[in-house]
Design a protein that fits this description.
Length: 130
């Protein structure tokens, strides 16, 4: 993998400078999480499987790291890496829901006057009461 000045696309759509150090640190942490030593040769082998290009997404890089770990036979490390990603994905989802609820409850009239008023909370017609 030739290192160039690549731009990556983050989850929120923003652009950032590619950092090999961040990938290497994530790999080392995955090895550490299962008490498996990782030397520079091992890390280099894993990195050699990655196909980094301009505008690659963080998600794609992480998928490639998972596959590289498994190709090299580090199944427990890959499992730890996958579980870590899943946990952080759930954390991001929870935070997003909490932010939505916080903004919703801070509106002038949460039931009718919020910026989310267009959201159809009850997509069925209520029966007429005679």
């Amino acid at each position: 993998m030739e290192i160039k000045n690549f731009t990556i696309t983050k989850r929120d759509g923003s652009k950032d400078q590619f950092s090999l150090d961040k990938i290497m640190n994530a790999i080392v942490k995955a090895f550490d999480s299962v008490n498996c030593p990782a030397d520079l040769g091992t890390i280099s082998k894993i990195l050699s499987h990655l196909d980094i290009h301009d505008d690659i997404t963080v998600e794609t890089i992480q998928n490639q790291v998972e596959e590289a770990l498994m190709r090299e036979g580090f199944y427990q490390v890959a499992k730890s890496f996958i579980l870590y990603r899943q946990l952080h994905s759930e954390d991001r989802d929870t935070l997003e829901k909490m932010m939505f609820l916080s903004e919703y409850t801070e509106s002038v009239n949460a039931a009718t006057g919020s910026k989310y008023a267009e959201v159809e909370l009850y997509p069925f017609e209520s029966p007429s009461v005679d």
